[in-house]
Amino acid sequence: MGLMMCEGRFVSRNEIAMVPTPAATVSWKPVAHSEVIEAVTRAIHARNWQIIDEQYGLARDGQRMFGFMRINRTSSNEWSRCIGIRNSHDRSVAVGLAAGLTVSCCSNLCLGGSMVLRRRHTSRIDLAGIVATAIGELETEFLTLETVAEDLKLLYLKDDQARAAIVKSAEAGVINSSDIVPIFKEFKEPRHIEFAEPTRWSLLNAFTENAKKYTPARADICYRGLTRLFGLDGRSPTLW
Fold it and tell me: How far is Cα 203 from Cα 162, in angstroms, rounded to an integer?
C-alpha cells in the first residue's frame, strides 16, 4: 500500500494489541491503538465493505500508530479506496480517519480530502459512535477525491510550472527542501509509464512517490499539505 517506515517499524494487529495504553487523567483518556482499529473494522463491516488488505506502523516506542485499510469500494481500475488511520498515546495527534486512494500501478498513497474524524482524547470520547459517523461520511470524501483526481489528469503542466509548484510546496513545509530536485526528476522521468504525460496528476504522484521515504508522521504532514495545495478537498487548489 502506501505506508513507509524510516522511523519506527511495521507491525501486525497482534503486535499493536500488545502496546500498553497510558493511564487516564481527569481530562485526558488515551484510546488504545487496537481499539481504534477494531472500531474502524466494525464500522466498515457494518456498511458491507470488505477490507482487502491493511498495513500498520508504530513510531516513538509505540506512542504513535499509523495505518491504512484498502477496501473493495472503488469506481476506477487505476486506484483503490483506502482509509488512513492515526492515533497517539503522547498527545501529539488526535484520533484521525481520512479518505484516500492507493494508485494501483505503484502503490502510491494519495491521502486526500480532510480528516473526517479528528478527535482529541477526552474523558467523554465515544469512540464507537464517532467512528461509525466518520465512516459514513467517507463516501462523500471518496467521491470528491476521485473527481479531483480525474480532473488532475486533464491539466497539463510546463516544466517551469512544475518547478514553481515544487518549490512552493517546499516553502510551505509540505516537502523537505532537499526533495525539490528528486521530485522534479520523478516528474520528468517517472518510473511508471502511467505518469508519462506531464499533468498535475503526474506531478502529484511524483510527490507521493517521494513521500514513501518519509516517516509516518512526516508523511502525514506531507499528505495533508498536498490535500490543500492540489485541492484534493474539493476547494480551489493553492498551488497554481
Answer: 7
Structural domain span for residue 74: 9-147
Q: 77 and 54 in contact (C-beta within 8 Å)? A: no
C-alpha span between 147 and 145 (Å, rounded): 5
Tens of pLDDT, residues 204-216: 999 999 998 887 7
What pTM does this model have?
Answer: 0.81
DSSP character for 199?
A: B
Dist CA 12 CA 14 (whole Å): 5
Of 147, 172, 205, the residue that ends a domain is 147
Q: Are 186 and 210 in contact (CB under 8 A)?
A: yes
Report residue 5 as a C-alpha cell: 517506515
At 190 the three-state DSSP class reads: coil
DSSP E strand stretches across 40-139? 51-59, 64-71, 79-88, 95-103, 109-119
